[in-house]
Amino acid sequence: MSNYTGENIQVLEGLEPVRKRPGMYIGGTGKAGLHHLLWEIVDNAVDEATNGYATLIEVTLHKDGKTCSVSDNGRGIPVDIHPVKKVPTLELILTTLHAGGKFDGSNYITSGGLHGVGSSVVNALSEELIATIKRDGKTYQQIFTKGVPITNLKVLNPNSRGSGTTIQFRPDEDIFETTTFDAALIAENLETKTYLNKTLKIVFKDDVNGKRHEFHHEGGIREYLTHMVVKDKVRPIHSEQFALSQPDLIAGLRAELVLQWTESPRESIKSYVNGIPTADGGTHEAGLKDGVVKAVRAYMETHNLTDKKLEISADDIREGLFAILNVYMTEPQFQGQTKDKLNNPEARSLVNNAFRLDLEQWLNAHPSFGDAIAARVVQAAKARLASRTAVQAVRAKSVGSSRLALPGKLADCSSKKPDECELFIVEGDSAGGSAKQGRDRKFQAILPLRGKVLNTEQANAKKLTDNKELSNILLALGCGIGDKMDLGNLRYHKIILLMDADSDGHHIATLLLTFFYRHMRSLIDGGYVYIAQPPLYRVDVGKETFWALDDTDRERIIREQKKSKPRAIAEIQRFKGLGEMMPQTLKETTLDPDKRRLLRVSIPDTERLRTEQVITDLMGKDASARYRFIMENAEEAEELDV
User: Fold this and answer.
1) In this predicted model, what pLDDT tens digit does every residue of 470-516 receive, in sequence order?
2) What is the pTM of this model?
3) Catalytic pick from 191, 206, 316, 500?
4) Which residue among the candidates 427, 469, 612, 617 is catalytic per the annotation?
5) CATH code of the domain made up of 16-215
6) 212, 173, 198: which is closest to 55 by C-alpha?
7) Domain 403-534+581-602 adopts which CATH fold?
8) Burial class of 204 by CB neighbour count within 10 A (0 to 12, 13 to 18, 19+)
9) H/E segment holding residue 85
10) pLDDT over threshold 50, residue 189
11) Second-level CATH architecture of 220-383
């Protein structure tokens, strides 16, 4: 049994704890931890700017890709002899944990670094750190290795102009998995700083790639939000952003917010405290979410925009929300040195109260925006409900089965490459038989349907579960449904609806499109769904044969032929359905990729909300909505095929 005595107890002094356990201070020794060193130094410079002492920051990534310099034109770190420790203040700050000028608020009203460990941690984990200070008309410099000063503080230039701080450091290769910095990541982070501080200018010199970036965004977080939306390639559903700045919530606390709803299927909220990104959110972000949900609920209830039978969750309200929240506090309480999460309990209610009423008033003052947001929320709720119902249906069907069985009516293709495979969903066994004979077996699969499929806009979970036709489609596609969809498992990259060119065929196609829209939207958004265009007429003029899609197309063909052949007689055959076509005819007109006509199903960004409304009106349970739609669009229906 080993002896455990006082001799086994180690006392780590100075910066030894940092080098012994770096993860406690920077989160890890991988890429994120490496770049955290740079963020610590940059944030100190930004604090000078935020508090009105600096206007320019220059960051340089040197040619070796492993050395960084950060310069600002602020006041410069003090270099006088500390009255208690009797060493230069610069040396004290860079070699002692919890030494800094941000504890009492006298020099920095708000700052991102309050623990007093940032600069000293960077110094401890650097092979070399060079601090150059301009102040009081002189330029000073001191050099450190692994946190230990190897030179005394010395005067480089006794006659200098201006003031500021330059920290150059090279991370220690014995500590980090890699010491090579990512120039693109640095540029992105620095640009964000200038969005949050619209008076600040940052120059990034990337000597590795020979590039120079200059960041300055007078539009602030409004401009930042626009950048986010454009970068994510999503469409806003209301043109004007909601923006609000509260300069004095309580003593020492101010906040600014900008938000906008989009067609994105997710929410994207970026929150900051004193310019520091809080990736894990915290109490301030929770307050924002509370306020948004309460404001939108209040607007929808006031204007009777909520279906009482539809349960709307907080996630439904925030789906598609893009927001930026920046809070400035004198005493932020972060979770850990990496400052990824704010813990101040009072921030939640303060942020909630700061923005909720203003957002609700803004919605009431802009009813077109408010109604569009409400429609977006209802759409999200319906999609969530449909997804949950569909997943339950699939699970119910798969109980007791551990393998995927393809439906018996599926005539599959031989190719196993999804990008070249096509699935024709065909109306009826008769048409399915012709299609099977006319197809190219290598890449074309045929799945016949029996009669009209289920209207999934009105179906409950049990009906969806029991519907064999829809289950066959799901089994054939193989990619799952709702939230569980994985397009990587999709067996066919062309899903072609092949129905008769009559009213029944159009109805079946509409029912299938409703199913895909509600339960497998990714197929439409990904461009995988098509509608075949089989001819309704065969027109023979002399020895030539033409195929007409509809009555208008038929008249056009006859008119054109009479111009060139005045005496020719047109013989017209109308197909009652695909089942009447010979396999060779179906192949020539509808299956052959070189001759067929296909329509790709897509929803333009400008039509997404209208699409939602039309499907709800036409396929939903409310008959009055259908009646209104028919009456409003009756003039557009020149002829009804009944």
Assistant:
1) 888 888 898 888 767 888 889 999 999 998 877 778 888 898 998 88
2) 0.60
3) 500
4) 427
5) 3.30.565.10
6) 198
7) Rossmann fold (3.40.50)
8) buried
9) none
10) yes
11) 2-Layer Sandwich (3.30)
